[in-house]
Each structure stands twice: as structure tokens, then as C-alpha cells.
Amino acid sequence: MTFETRQILSVSQLNRKIRLLLESQYPGLWVEGEISNFKKHSSGHIYFTLKDENAQISAAFFSQYQRGLRFELKEGLKVLAYCRVSIYEARGQYQLYVERIEPKGVGALQLAFQQLKEKLEKEGLFREERKRPIPRFPGTVGVVTSPTGAAIHDILNVVNRRFCGTQLLLYPVKVQGEGAAEEIAAAIEAMNRLEGAEVLIVGRGGGSLEDLWEFNEEVVARAVYHSRIPVISAVGHETDWTICDLVADLRAPTPSAAAELVVASRLELEQKVRDHGVRLRDALWNIWKDHQERLAELAASAAFRQPRYLLDQFAERTDDLSRRLQMAFKTGLSFKRQSCQNLTGRLNALNPLGILERGYAVTFGPAGKVLKSVQGITAGDEITTRLHKGSLVSKVTEVIKEK
């Protein structure tokens, strides 16, 4: 091959040929793998690596293909991806362009349910302590459901049968299909703004997981959580559980059961009134009998049979107590007086002035201290002698020390 006959391609031309070849050979196929290096761009596009035990390949999942995605893609999730194989010409890197993706081993809706349940549970939307009691006798019950579905007819039948005085305020919404979740959430918010209903029933009749999915949407869960009006969730049949059931203040197994929970039966109320009437009559009869018996006992007591005798007894008892009190007072006073005299005698015996009264005297030296010896006294010192009455001031002419 001569230089003139050689086919020379630029890098761009080569990458384009490879891209066309890959896209023609692999226009669409399912690839199984585990997501890693997960990144979501601000544009909404998602980029990740799909890998198995021995190899890996880059993948792009553009936002226009994500509309039907029910669950959340995240690191480590095993998936089945329907994609086409192509090449990113700018870098010469071949990769997968994902158009649809499903979780491996579990349905997409079931995985989405579990992911949203875990998220809202961590935020505290399911806490029992935040749930409010349902009013026992509401005058107006708000209903958010389809106006043509079986749920509203079941609720109307129960209300009319049990207590026709209850008013229903229906906010009609779609309960299935595109935009239904947003309608349900908007209806709950509108009912709160109207402030006409005392309790809300939110729900629909039974169906498959796909049919009930609008009640598993996050927008509905948050609308129920923020509702100031207590909410009863009545979605599907008894075995069906939705996110709405977990957030609501009360879950009813069916719409009919929800109506029975909020509307009291007239017959039940009438029976309760009769029962309370019987209990009240019996209680009044027992109180009357008890007071009658006590009155009979008082009438038969000595106070009513011999009142003069009782008064004499009380007067004699009073006189006896008075005498005993006077005697105790005199005895106590005499004892206290004798104790006082004994203490006075003891104090007098210890009083130094009492000793002076018996002819003794106390002498003080020039410094005013009591003299107990001649130590420190010299001729010419003035000393003071304290007598029983008065004092003598003397001048020492001679000091005689004891030999």
C-alpha cells in the first residue's frame, strides 16, 4: 500500500465510526450490574458506573428518561438497565446510555415504598405521640376521594344508615394516574384552608400496588402530616398498607370502616342514654336509702330520746374537768415556786456580796485587782477595801510578809 492509497482518519472521525458501529450493533439491551461512583448533576442527569465482580463500564441516565422512575438510585444498588451502547466522542470513552432501569431482585414500586418509608420514618412523620384523637361526634366530615368511585358511595351509605345528621364535605380528586398525587395533596391543603370539616377521610377503594401508588407519594404524605385537621387514611382493603396510612392520625382498613369510625350509630347512642338513665336512677335511689337509714339511726340515738340527761352529763363532765384543771394549776404553781426559792438560795450562797454581808471584806490593789497576797505591794501604796456597805481607801505603812 502506497502512501497515497492509505486511508487516514482523524481522531474525531475514528470515534464517530466507532460510535456508529456500536449503536448499530447494540441499539438496545439489558445490562445487569451494581451502581457505583453515583453522581447526580444539577441539570438532573445522573452519571454512574455499572460493575460486576470482574469489570465495569460508565453509564449516563439523562433526565428525560427518569419520569417513570419510582425508586431512588443510590450507591451499591443492584439494577437491570435497558440501554444502548455508544461512545462519548470527545473523550473516546464508550459507555451505556440508560433509558430504563429496574431494581434487581425486588419490584421498583416495592423498593420505592421501602426507601420513602425509611426516609419519612427518620424525619419523625410516623411518630405515635404526634397523632391526634379523632372527634367522637363530628358535625362535618371532609372526604378527599374520587366522586365516582366506590369509596364515596360506601361512605354515604354508612353515614345515612348510622346518623343522618352528619354532613359530608366532598373534595373530588383523581385517585389514580398522572397528577393524582398532587391533586390529593392540594385537596388536603384546601380543606385546611376552608376549616369546615372537623375530620378528614382520605382514600379510595381497593386495587393493585400500582393502583394505590398515589397514596405512597411523598407529596401526599407531607400534606397529611401538615394537616391541622385530624386525618383518617382509608386506602384499599384491610391488607393494603400505604405511606398515607402510616402518616395519618388513624388508619381505617376500608372507606366504610372509616365512616363507621367517625359517625356514631343512633341506636348505640339511644342505648347509651337509656343505660346512663338506669344507672343515674339506681345511684339516686341508693343515696336516698342511705340518708334514710342514717336519719333513722339519729332519731333512735340518746340525743333525741333523753336530751336533758345528756345535757346534765355534759355539765357534770365540764365541772369535773374544771376542778381537775384548777388543782393541776395550783400544784404546778406550788412546785414552780419551791423550785424558784431553791435556786435563789443557791445563787445567794454563791454571791460574793452575800459573803461581805457576813462581815468579810475584799481588798483591791493599786491596779484594781483583788489582793490575795502582799506580793507586789510596798509601803506607801493605796489600797481599797470593799465592805458590805461602802469602801475604805488606805495607805500602806508597812508590809509584813508571812514567814
Q: Please, could you describe this protein's structure?
A:
The chain has helices spanning 11-25, 108-123, 150-162, 180-194, 218-226, 243-247, 255-262, 266-299, 302-305, 307-350, 352-357, and strands spanning 29-40, 46-51, 56-61, 78-88, 93-103, 140-145, 167-172, 199-204, 231-235, 250-251, 362-364, 382-386, 391-395. The protein has 403 residues and is an alpha/beta fold. It has four domains: 11-105, Nucleic acid-binding proteins (OB fold (Dihydrolipoamide Acetyltransferase, E2P)); 127-264, Succinyl-CoA synthetase domains (Rossmann fold), CATH 3.40.50; 268-320; 356-395, no CATH class. The strands form three sheets. Strands 1-2-3-5-4 form a five-stranded mixed barrel. Strand 2 (46-51) and strand 3 form a beta hairpin. Helix 3 (150-162) packs parallel to helix 7 and helix 4 (180-194) packs parallel to helix 5. The longest helix has 44 residues, at 307-350. The radius of gyration is 54 Å and the shape is elongated. The N and C termini lie far apart (161 Å). The mean pLDDT is 83.
- According to CATH, the fold-level topology of the largest domain is Rossmann fold
**Low-pLDDT residue intervals, each spanning 5 or more residues:** none
Shape: elongated
Number of strands: 13
Instruction: List the domain count as a whole number.
Output: 4
Span between termini: 161 Å
Radius of gyration: 54 Å
CATH superfamily of the largest domain: Succinyl-CoA synthetase domains
State which percent range the strand residues make up: 15-25%
SSE pattern, N- to C-terminal: HEEEEEHEHEHEHEHEHHHHHEEE
Widest sheet: strand ordering:
1-2-3-5-4
Please tell me the CATH architecture of the largest domain by its name: 3-Layer(aba) Sandwich
**How helical, in percent, are the residues?**
40-55%
Structural class: alpha/beta
Query: What average pLDDT do the residues reach?
Result: 83
Task: Give the helix tally.
Answer: 11
Give the CATH level 1 class of the largest domain.
Alpha Beta
Sheet of most strands: 5 strands, mixed, barrel
